[in-house]
Structures are given as C-alpha cells and as structure tokens.
Amino acid sequence: MLSSSSPQADAAHDAAGDYVVKGAWFTLVVMIIMALVANVDRQMLVLAAAPLSQSLGLSDARIGIIQGLPFAIFMIVAVYPIAWAADRFDRRWVFGICVLIWSLGTAACGLARNFEELFAAAVLIAAGEASLVPVGIAFVPELFKGRKRLLANSIFYLFGFMGLAGGLIVSGAVMALADLVHADLPTSMQALESWRLAFFLVAAPTPIFLFLIAVSRLGHRSEPVAVNGQQPPAKNHLWPYVRRHRRTVLTLFVGLSFYTLGVGGYFFFLPVATSRMFGTTPAQNGTLMGTATAIGLVLGVVIGTFINRRMTARIGPVASIRLLWMAMLAGMPIFLIFPFVSASWQVFALFGGIMFLVTAAGCALPGIMQDMAPADLRGRVAAIGNIGNGIVNGIAPGMVGWISPYLGTDPRNLIVAMGIFAIPSWIIAAMLFRMAERPFERTRLAAMAEAAADPISIESEQT
C-alpha cells in the first residue's frame, strides 16, 4: 500500500491554500471506474428485463420488485453500517469487500432459475453498491483541499452520472456481444441464454478492480492534530448533530427522495416500454438511452455549473438549493409529453431532457453534503440521504409495475403509470427544497462558525 503523508504536513499545505494529497487523482479515477462498473452491473437488470422475464416467466410487477425492492431493503439495512465502517476503518478494505459482494451478486443473476433466486442475487448487488455514496462523499475532502475539492467534486459528480450513460451503453454492448458469440460457445454452454452469459461477462474483471482499490489512497485520512499543546477535538456524534439540524436534514433529504422518485420509474421501465411499443432490442435500448443520458448529463453539468455560479454570486451558496426546486418545476411539461411519443428516439430524447434537469440541479449536491456535515460524519450523513433514496428506488419500479396492468393492455399505459408517480413527486420535491433554503443556510453558517472557532482542526481550511 502507498504510505500516508503525516497530518502535520497536510495541515501545513492546507494553511498555504489549495492542496492535493499524493495519489489523489489516481484514487479519483479508480472511484470513477467503480461507479461505472456498479452502473453496468445494475443496468444489466434493466436491459435484460425483457428476455429475462420471458425466460423465468416473470410479470411486470415482479420485474419491478427485482429492480427496486432489493435496493430499497439494503439501502436501509446496509448503507449505515457500511458508512459507519468507512468513517472508522481503512476504506480500501470496506469498499473492496463491498465490490466483491456486488460482483458475486452479478454472477449469481446469470445462474438464477426463478424469482426467488434472482431476488437474492439482486440483494447482493444492492448490499455492495450501498458503499458507493458514503465512500464517494467522504474520500474527496480527505484528498483534495480548498478549490481543488470543488474541482474534484465536479469531476466525480459528472463522471459518476456519466456512469449511468456508460453503464447503459456498456451493458447494451455486452448484451450484443453475448448474442454474437453465443453460437460459437462450446456445446455444453450453448444451453445458456445470452442474457445469462452477459451477467458472467460483466462480473469477470472483478480481480482487476480489487487490485486498483488496494493501491489507491482511499485509506488516507486528514486527522485533527494537537497544536500548541492543545488536544484534538472530540469526535462528533451523528444523532446530536441530526437533532440540532433536523429541519435541514428533513427538508433536504426527504426532498431528495421525492426528486429520485420522479425519475425512478422511467429509468427502470423505459427500456421495457420501448421494446413493447416499438420492438427495439436490449442493445438498441442501451445505446439510445445511454447516448441520450450522456448528452443530457454533459449539458446539465456545463450549463448547471454556469447558472449555479451566476446565482451564487448574486444570492450566495443557497443558490444550489434554489436551483434544485426550479429544475423540478421545469420538468413537469416533459413528463406530460411522454405518453404522446410516436418513435423510440422521441422516448429517449425526452429522457435526455429529464437527465439534463437532474444533472443541472444536482451537480452541487456533493458540496452541499460536505458543507453541512463535520469531517468525521460525512459518510454517515450521506448515508442518511442514501437510505431515503434507496427506499424510493425500491418503491418506484414496484409501484409502476403494479399499477400499469390496471390501466389496460396498451403498452403505452406503462409510460402513463410512470407519469402518475413522477409529476406529484417532483411537485412535493420542489416544495421541500424551497422550505430547505433557510435551514440549510443556518446549518452551513453554524458549520463555518464551528470550524473558525476550532484552531486545531485540519478541516478548518477555507473551502
């Protein structure tokens, strides 16, 4: 493993201004790769939904449950213990174990023979992927200081979301590759459906990923040190912090949950709806959806960052919260247009518009999370938000799959069912984000005052 620089040395560099710990950029690249890998593993369940449901005889409701409920359960059960461990132990071990777990779950999807086995495999994927948010939020401030932290956050957010697009494109390519090589497989393996082979292919490079994590700087921590004989400050405790800032935590994190609910159904069921309405293949859906998502994400980060900076110069850091609720309101007309599409490209173009709004509003979220929590609570505070999103990600596909049969047999009704959840969800999210503006500003100012009053905390660098 790479050796860690001393806290005293880090503190000296912090005082001088912006600073990047040795190996920080390599670690950022590793985490971006792992975000892509996680998206590939999960999007296989999305793109393989149509052939998988036919092979295993699964209804829309059961497909929705597979794509959502395991992730909701383990966002509740697994994410906080993982965040607790990541805040205390070497993150390389914690994250490496989680990557191994989700890779085993991906391979197990290829072996599933029924709903129960597929559900258990999805649970393993969810348990491992629960580590991404708390580790991703916590490692950047430890390795990047000052304005470098803002740059690293933007890069990680952009490429983390690009992982959604890349995950779809790579998953679609893997599905196409599995179809292509299926006939050339040994006779004993030709009995495997192509979708099963695809799951095995995406799980195969796991040893390489574990090696990259092992040589990264995820384990580095900038611990508070004694200065002029003073003792380092005591560790913060999560629940006293949550009680002090409960209005910020509730309005912001519940708002984020409804924000996620608005797009959850679309992300999981659009490939299924497009296959039924226009006869597109999983590979075609992956390419179209991935391309639309990538375009929306890049434009969202560029334009959203520009708007956020202009608004921040005028009204201060609360601009990040305000941009969230403005984006929610702007998305309403797009949801209303979805049921009237007449071609597959129109479906994914509209989805690209939604992803543009999601990214434009959300590119400041990592900074919001980091600014509202002390250094030793960042992973766990991010985990609280991730629990809410996990619940919603479980609810959205299952409810869309449950309600769509009641709307009739027209394949277009699957898209109508998505809108039934999306529109009220984003209205509620907009209201909660509007309510979060003042509480967030008070929490941010309290954190700044605490840092300014603490002369021996390394985390008091200007960010």
TrEMBL record:
Question: Where would you find the membrane-spanning parts of this chain?
Answer: 20-38, 65-86, 93-113, 119-144, 156-177, 197-215, 249-269, 289-307, 319-341, 347-369, 381-403, 415-433
- Is the keyword 4Fe-4S assigned to this protein? no
PROSITE patterns on file: MFS
Keyword entries, A-Z: Membrane, Transmembrane, Transmembrane helix, Transport
Q: In the UniProt record, does the keyword Cell inner membrane occur?
A: no
Chain ranges of the Major facilitator superfamily (MFS) profile domain? 27-437
For this protein, the record's Gene3D superfamilies field holds:
MFS general substrate transporter like domains
Q: Which domain of life is it from?
A: Bacteria
Q: Where in the cell is it found?
A: Membrane
What Pfam families does the annotation carry? MFS_1 (PF07690)
Instruction: Describe its membrane topology.
Output: Multi-pass membrane protein
| Primary residence | membrane
What is this protein identified as?
MFS transporter
Q: Which organism is it from?
A: Sphingosinicella rhizophila
